[in-house]
Amino acid sequence: MQSKYEQTKGDMKLDNTSIIHLASKNKKWINLFRLSVSLKDPVDPKILQQALNVTVKRFPSIAARIHKGAFWYYQSAVKRAPQVLPEQNVLLGYMSNQELEQCAFRVLYASKAIHVEIFHALTDGRGGELFLKTLLAEYFTRKDEAVIPLVDGILDRKETPREAELTDEYLEIADAKPQNLAKEKK
């Protein structure tokens, strides 16, 4: 397992599940998912960009690019946030391999909506939800000077990611066999 320092400064090896998403990607099956929020007021793209610039630093495993090494796929944290884009009336538009190598997620906005589209190899829906909630907290803090508590999946944008957020613990969790857990309880 790589240390947090090694992972945030360099490449993070994708797990087997993530590689399946890359292997099955084609023009008809893109392996992106979208999370959206509707707002009562119009979106300010400049403030949304500022919020994204801060939020990506908190999520190096989501704000990432995907590239192929000699034998494995890797993800690396993006050096800077991608540009927020106006929605183009295309739900989950295709993301080419070249685009994945630049940044494997995008933030879109409509007049009163914000969307995050994430390549599924980076995270699942829960990770995407945490990212979107944290992005929204930063957006409303900047736009309305709102004081938003760090609860219900809103993370501190200035905090360094915890080790567990940057490591693939699937094998450790999968190896926790139910019979072993039952013995420990006795």
Please, could you describe this protein's structure?
The chain is globular, with a radius of gyration of 18 Å. The two termini are 31 Å apart. The chain has a four-stranded mixed beta sheet, covered by helices on one side. Strands 1-4-3 form a three-stranded antiparallel beta sheet. Helix 3 (45-58) crosses helix 5 (125-144). It has 186 residues and is of the alpha+beta class. It has eight helices and seven strands. It has helices spanning 4-9, 16-24, 45-58, 97-102, 125-144, 163-166, 170-174, 178-185; strands at 11-13, 32-38, 64-68, 73-77, 85-86, 105-110, 113-119. It has one domain: Chloramphenicol acetyltransferase-like domain (Chloramphenicol Acetyltransferase).
Task: Reconstruct the topology from this structure.
Layout: H1 4-9, E1 11-13, H2 16-24, E2 32-38, H3 45-58, E3 64-68, E4 73-77, E5 85-86, H4 97-102, E6 105-110, E7 113-119, H5 125-144, H6 163-166, H7 170-174, H8 178-185
Parallel strand pairs: 5-6
Antiparallel strand pairs: 1-4, 2-7, 3-4, 6-7
Helix pairs in contact: 3-5
